[in-house]
UniProtKB/TrEMBL annotation:
The chain crosses the membrane at residues 24-44, 116-135. This is Copper transport protein. InterPro entries: Cop_transporter. It comes from Capsicum annuum. One of its GO terms (cellular component) is plasma membrane.
Length: 152
């Protein structure tokens, strides 16, 4: 039976029936895997954002002034870049693939946390925090916003 509250223990089933831990060694390996996947999630998110910025900057014509910001009604505090390179450019396609891979990793991490094991929860949260520190800290000025909606 699946736990519906947080519990602490070495017996946990993660994501698949075959990924069960029954000893402290297998539990430690599972926690290490959750930690590494969390780091990888932050790394892939950083790569996706940097690739998007590079694809926009490489096709942008700097001899012309930048386009005016959108009206305050549509995006009060956010500036969105216009679509560059057409709707079906290779850079947009590659960015979409990276987004899909990163979304899959994120959902897998969420499902791992939903095992309600306290160790798994801590491993994922610490991995995300350390991954953010290593891969995404200090470049907040380079964020590209596709959609001004906070829930997108």
């Amino acid at each position: 039976m699946m736990h519906m509250t947080f519990y602490w223990g070495k017996k946990v089933t993660l994501l698949f029936d075959f990924w069960r831990t029954d000893s402290w060694n297998s539990y430690a390996i599972a926690l290490l895997a959750c930690f590494i996947f969390s780091l990888f999630y932050q790394y892939m998110e950083d790569r996706r954002q940097r690739f998007r910025i590079l694809s926009i900057n490489s096709k942008r014509n700097y001899s012309q002034p930048p386009p005016p910001p959108p009206p305050a009604v549509n995006a009060p505090l956010l500036y969105t870049f216009p679509s560059v390179g057409g709707k079906w450019s290779s850079a947009r396609f590659a960015t979409a693939i990276l987004f899909g891979v990163n979304s899959a990793i994120g959902y897998m991490l969420m499902l791992a946390v939903m095992s309600f094991n306290g160790g798994v929860f801590i491993a994922v949260v610490v991995g995300l925090g350390i991954g953010y520190l290593f891969f995404r800290n200090g470049d907040e000025n380079d964020v590209v916003v596709d959609n001004p909606c906070a829930c997108a």
